Amino acid sequence: LAAVEMELRRRRFGRAVRLEVQSGMSAEMVELLVRELDLEPRDVSYHATMLDLTCLFQLAGLDRPDLKDTPWPPVTAGRIAAAEDAERSIFSVIRERPLLVHHPYESFSSSVESFIAQAADDPKVQSIKMTMYRAGGDSPIARSLMRAAERGVQVAVLVELKARFDEATNVTWAKTLERSGVHVVYGLVGLKTHAKCVMVVRNDDDGLRRYCHIGTGNYNSRTARIYEDVGFITCDPAVGADVTQLFNHLTGYSRTQQFETLLVAPREMRNQLVDLIEHESSYGPDGHIQAKLNSLQDPGIIEALYRASQQGTRIDLLVRGLCCLVPGVPGVSETIRVRSQLGRFLEHSRIVRFAHGNQGAGHPSRGEDQPLFLIGSADWMPRNLDKRIEVLVPVTHPKHQMWLDKVFEFTWADDVVRWELDAEGRWHRRGPQRFDEGDAQERFYRWVAATQRR
Question: Could you give the 3-state DSSP secondary structure of residue 312?
Fold first, then answer.
């Protein structure tokens, strides 16, 4: 903590590494800035557009609804709404069967925030453990944790102090949580903790039970309104045992061991993903891999996907940002498609589907010709697979798998606006000329609203 605080103070006085200026700036002013900042002319980049795009938030914040998109109010998941009407706790809903929640189409407040808030106030709750990567400046979740600690619940939070650009906020939360009695830890040396996990231990009428949330996005109430993410809440004993083991490892109580259900980086995730890709490729043209990611950069994963393509396996990749794989190259990646989707929400979830993934590949969940769905925090990049604590969890309930299939169905429709990557590494806009005639996110929102309000 002290080391991060020192670096934050030093950051303001660090040496300049580049200078960005507007293209109309005079040569005399540029020369003065270069000299005073001890830079070279090659360190200067000229821009015709605005330099600080964050100021656009001020425009978006103006009270002019006539200039803004029609609101898409998040809906409360049907089972949670029914429980609220019947004055039942969210724990009773989870005991019936796991919950899959999809933000911001479904409310973050009535699901994840409510899960932690109810845990904080429930006299049957014994302990709460959580990872915190980007909580934001005013976090209802952090305040729920403080409230729980103040009433005597054992609360442990792993705060990632090295979350890029959120270091100062996380330092402040770490100190505030500690003052409230929360046991704050900072993870493992040399590794960022990027996994999104919560575990609540509750003394139910039939004994202690572990309730776990594993998600793709941060526990941040503000970004949950504009980032598309998926969360999974369960009391499955096998998942609970793995999450317990993970927290014991992160807090220094035990060495890491083999996980039964979770895929965890940096220990085994890359090898398990490569095994799953190779297993799917053994089905040749009958194999099918679908992945929704923020970035795809890892050389080992990319090579495995190329080998699978050469066996005829169909591979559909929805990659929002960086993609180092080149699709459609004859003899190398002919069966691979890559597209990117832009819209009102930032596509942030990581979802992977192997059409035959429940069979072999060293994974504990097996079944003849059954698909395997995974959600979690990890992109397919070296930094995620080698230098971060990441978690993927299998989604096994048929209704939840159907939901994730719908995500792929809407995003891979032929008549939606999207960007497609060609064999030359160039992106091309495809679909209707008018965005509102092919907005996949709007179509999905309307499907969610109709499904949950039935």
Answer: coil
Cβ atoms of residues 304 and 325 within 8 Å: no
- Among residues 102, 103, 194, 348, the one annotated as catalytic is 194
Give the Cα separation of 71 and 48 in Å (integer).
32
Rounded to 5 degrees, what are φ and ψ at 376?
A: 170, -160
Rounded-to-integer distance, Cα 213 and Cα 115, Å: 9
Superfamily assignment of 78-250 in CATH? Endonuclease Chain A (3.30.870.10)
DSSP 339-367: EE--SSSEE--EEEEETTTTSSTT-S---
**194 belongs to the catalytic site:** yes
Q: For residue 224, which of 311, 107, 89, 391 has the smallest C-alpha distance?
A: 107
Query: How many angstroms separate the CA atoms of 69 and 303, rounded?
Result: 42
Can you give the residue ranges of every domain in the chain? 2-52, 78-250, 263-448
Q: CA 394, 398, 403, 405 torsion: positive or negative? A: positive
Q: pLDDT tens digits, residue range 372-421?
A: 999 999 999 999 999 999 999 999 999 999 999 999 999 999 999 999 99
Q: Residue 177: CB partners within 8 Å, gap ≥ 6? A: 142, 145, 146, 149, 157, 159, 184
Q: How many CB atoms lie within 10 A of CB 254?
A: 13
In whole angstroms, give the CA distance from residue 443 to residue 437.
Answer: 10
- With beta carbons less than 8 A apart as the criterion, state whether 433 and 410 touch: no
Contact (CB, 8 A) for 170 and 164: no
**Residue 118 burial by Cβ neighbours in a 10 Å radius (0-12, 13-18, 19+):** middle
Are 265 and 284 contacting, i.e. CB atoms less than 8 angstroms apart? Answer: no
Domains 78-250 and 263-448 alike in fold? yes
Token reading at 270: 């890359």
Give the residue among 125, 123, 118 at the shortest CA–CA distance from 87.
118
| Class in CATH terms, 263-448 | alpha beta
State pLDDT tens for residues 114-160: 999 999 999 999 999 999 988 777 889 999 999 999 999 999 999 88
Q: Which of 198, 200, 237, 209 is nearest to 121 (CA)?
A: 200
Note the residue count of the chain. Answer: 454
Residue among 56, 53, 54 at smallest CA distance from 67: 56
